[in-house]
Amino acid sequence: MKQKKFLLPESEIPTAWFNMQAVMPNKPLPILNPATHEALKPQDLYPIFCEECANQELNQKDEWIPIPDPVREQYAVYRCTPLVRAYDLEAALGTPAHIYFKNESVSPAGSHKLNSALAQAYYAKQQGITNITTETGAGQWGGALSYAAKKFGLECAVYMVKVSYEQKPYRRSIMETFGATITPSPSMSTRAGKDIITANPNDQGSLGCAISEAIELAVSTPNCKYTLGSVLNHVCLHQTVIGLEAEKQMELAGEYPDIVIACFGGGSNFSGITYPFMRHNIQEGKKTRFIAAEPASCPKLTRGKFEYDFGDEAGLTPLLPMYTLGHDFKPASIHAGGLRYHGAGVIMSQLMKDGFMEAVDVEQLDSFNAGVLFARTEGIIPAPESCHAIAATIKEALKCKEIGEGKTILFNLSGHGMVDMSAYDKYFSGEMRNYNISDEELQKYIKSADALNK
Amino acid sequence: MKQKKFLLPESEIPTAWFNMQAVMPNKPLPILNPATHEALKPQDLYPIFCEECANQELNQKDEWIPIPDPVREQYAVYRCTPLVRAYDLEAALGTPAHIYFKNESVSPAGSHKLNSALAQAYYAKQQGITNITTETGAGQWGGALSYAAKKFGLECAVYMVKVSYEQKPYRRSIMETFGATITPSPSMSTRAGKDIITANPNDQGSLGCAISEAIELAVSTPNCKYTLGSVLNHVCLHQTVIGLEAEKQMELAGEYPDIVIACFGGGSNFSGITYPFMRHNIQEGKKTRFIAAEPASCPKLTRGKFEYDFGDEAGLTPLLPMYTLGHDFKPASIHAGGLRYHGAGVIMSQLMKDGFMEAVDVEQLDSFNAGVLFARTEGIIPAPESCHAIAATIKEALKCKEIGEGKTILFNLSGHGMVDMSAYDKYFSGEMRNYNISDEELQKYIKSADALNK
Predict the structure, then answer these.
(1) Which one has a higher pLDDT value, A341 or A402?
(2) Are the beta carbons of B1 and A9 separated by less than 8 Å?
(3) Which of the four, B89, B132, B316, B317, has the lowest number of CB atoms within 10 Å?
(4) From the list A1, A7, A428, which residue is nearest B7 (CB)?
(5) Neighbouring-strand partners of residue B321
(6) Which of B69, B179, B425 faces A173 most closely, judged by CB atoms?
(7) HSE (CB half, 13 Å, CA atoms) of B160?
(8) Whether B349 contacts A151, CB under 8 Å
(9) Which residue, B92, B115, B96, B89, is CA-closest to B104?
(10) Strands (E), A120-218
(11) Contact between chains at A176 and B418 (C-beta distance less than 8 A)
(12) Residue B81: what are its φ and ψ, rounded to 5°?
């Protein structure tokens, strides 16, 4: 019987995260204070984030950052996650390619998000913080943080975009089951929320507004810190456990990936699976290709612009040097909520600029075609976000078939879609459609970033 | 770091199922033809079931039945499933007991049901069958069979109780994603369905009617067979992979269970986790206790009667010797749909009668109290069915605390509750309630079975 899964015992859970900032040839440009345009120091971030996270955010020195034992102990609930050979998908495609996927869907919260949530909750607890807060759109990050907070004995308040709060009751219930307090945003609990509700009592909320509410709660509440689930350097750092495990598991399989693929929202799961392999490109001249799969309707890497921009719609964050579609970009309402973000993380933006990675865009219908084929061959119903990685993988596998070359492809299955079945329903009913965006429209949005770079 | 999960490589997937019928001291009474009251032979079951399944159903001779390689290959998608030490649950309870659980929720369909679905689909394919059919209430079995059919290239038609079809769209979508055809029952596609709809156009369906429709489809369609997800001996046989793996994993943990617990509907996950350990009680005089956790509202083992009864409401099946509440028992609409069945499997009924196992009943609210504590400590949101096993486990663990004795408890986590979040919603909103049934009402139902035993 051929081996299907490559498992590692929990003693092989990495003992340190890999810090890409320490090895990349061109360091990222500094993060700037929007008022003074001065480079930010860790201390400038302390009012919002835990000190350790703020320090990690700007650490360009240490290649390895130790994972605290209590975090590793919590990782052991679901890690090491399986590396799986997708034999049946390969057979269905008739490709000579070897397709592997890292299955991050096995975590309690159903996605890779927990890798950083546990770390952030732990550091908060260590610092004597009692409450943490965040925003959530699709609900994956909110679910992960709720669970992590419970495990480290913290109170957790999540601002959930009102339209999601009403349309995704299962996600909300998951957060409640893990013990968090969920507030639909905009809410009357903050100045920012009140202002919006006063102006428009029927406002359905946005990620931008939910971020503003969570940050306001954090800075105005004693012993409360804000947390974020993607984009930032320390979040991507925590996700490198994915690739570090995958590296050992590919060794068990006797292969090394020619191509590594992940879907791309802010970059957290992409960085997690790619950085540990990419370091061998940087340090030893390996030639692995790294492909970010983004939605065609939110094409920051394939059609965005590299410049300074805000991380949020409202313009409350520092200025980040990144590929962006403009901070007031209004993404189409695709079902992959986790990919509807206007910018790419700072490190990845620099890596993209320097040619260490590439990007492709995927239409919504192609993503679900791929997801359904994957479910029927490999048994896991993928999250709409992960469907993008699968679509890009299938494309590469079919290229291999065309040229008759058996490459080794590894992709990250960032999460399962068990609580996204309404999206699959739409797909099967024929009601789902693609969303394209014209160059004219794109330029209109990008201007909001251009204005900051003059 | 203390070890949390006990894993086995897929090379350790059992190569044979354990057949309890071959070793139990008192064999089950024969299954009877309801018209002639003659004992059934395998051939009598061939019109409905695959021949191999019919043979296994009545096999009292072979202690081990080999698992075909193609089934083992498909098992490798998710097996061996993890055995997990519930340290954080233990800590929350302050119990000296060691609590372990076998995590069957990691299967593609989210529960143990796939263990038999894959076997049944394989045997159908082997026999040249092209179509399989079944009924589903809560949707766990339907989801598992849909996936198994797809993996072995069979068409799958599922009759889903109409009220579930409308109330559980996620379960329906999961089956569609795996490629099955779902028909709300009653339907116009069968005589049985037509009769019911003609009499009452607004009929909301029942498991009894859905079974009738599926059986009618199977016997009236060339190359089509019916499949069942619990109760029957061959289904329980296939589930023994759970306990066989758990036995090896408990060895890795250096322990042997004093108590083994599972929830109980028809008995499929209960038999799966218990039989392999129970054989040591029978053959070597071990003293492990085996506890079936059933809902207080459907108390077939704790308050039912051991006699011959039909397996379905409509009285289409052979007569089965079992603990029953009467085949026209109307279970309350608790959220654990998989436990709403009037009878216990034939083998387990005999084992219960002979004192090899015991049963407890669990109130609905207690089951969800237990499920939420488990989610917050161990990270997995359990299926409402599995919550019953957890509640029984907690009760035993608290007894250990009381008497200051550290017993080793193993329970089966039969499935996750990611698609049952509406039940958790009800719990958190305070709208959930217990359902008790009076002795008088119980006796009224049991009469329907009594009548068959005169």
Answers:
(1) A402
(2) no
(3) B316
(4) A7
(5) B308
(6) B425
(7) 30
(8) no
(9) B115
(10) 131-136, 155-161, 181-185
(11) no
(12) -80, 155
Q: How does pLDDT run along chain B (454 residues), one tens digit per residue?
A: 899 999 999 999 999 999 999 999 999 999 999 889 999 999 999 999 999 999 999 999 999 999 999 999 999 999 999 999 999 999 999 999 999 999 999 999 899 999 999 999 999 999 999 999 999 988 899 999 999 999 999 999 999 989 888 888 899 999 999 999 999 999 999 998 999 899 999 988 888 789 889 999 999 999 999 999 999 999 999 999 999 999 999 999 999 999 999 999 999 999 999 999 999 999 999 999 999 999 999 999 999 999 999 988 778 889 999 999 999 898 888 888 889 889 999 999 999 999 999 999 999 999 999 999 999 999 999 999 999 999 999 999 999 999 999 999 999 999 999 999 999 999 999 999 999 899 999 999 999 899 999 8
User: What does pTM read for this prediction?
Assistant: 0.96
Whether the CB-CB separation of B215 and B315 falls below 8 Å is answered with no
pLDDT of residue A413: 98
Judged by CB atoms closer than 8 Å, whether chains meet at B173 and A425 is answered as yes
Cβ neighbors of B195 (< 8 A, separation 6 or more) are none
**Residue A275 and residue A292: Cα distance in Å, rounded?**
12
In contact, A410 and A258? CB cutoff 8 Å: no
The contacts found for A328-331 with CB under 8 angstroms, 24 or more apart, are A328/A445, A328/A448, A329/A298, A329/A445, A329/A446, A329/A448, A330/A445, A331/A295, A331/A297, A331/A298
- The pLDDT assigned to A138 comes to 81
DSSP state of A314: T
Helices (H), A291-383: 300-303, 346-353, 364-378
- Distance CA(A331)–CA(A339), nearest Å, equals 9
Chain B residues with CB-CB distance to A378 below 8 A: 77
Residue among B32, B16, B21 at smallest CA distance from B60: B21
- Which amino acid is residue A177, in one-letter code? T
A176 contacts B424? CB cut-off 8 A:
yes
Sequence-distant (6+) residues with CB within 8 A of B81 are B102, B103, B104, B106, B107, B242, B245
The contacts of residue A438 (CB under 8 Å, 6+ apart) are none
Interface contacts (A, B; CB < 8 Å): 123
- C-alpha distance across the termini of chain B, in Å: 63
How many other C-beta atoms are found inside a 10 Å radius of the C-beta of residue A310? 23
**Out of B69, B178, B379, closest to residue A1 by CB:** B69
Instruction: Count CB atoms within 10 A of the CB of residue B439.
Output: 8
Is there a contact between B10 and A10 if contact means CB atoms under 8 Å apart?
no
Helix (H) or strand (E) holding B99: strand B98-103
State the sign of the Cα–Cα–Cα–Cα dihedral B54, B60, B61, B64: positive
Tokens in use for A70?
């209590």
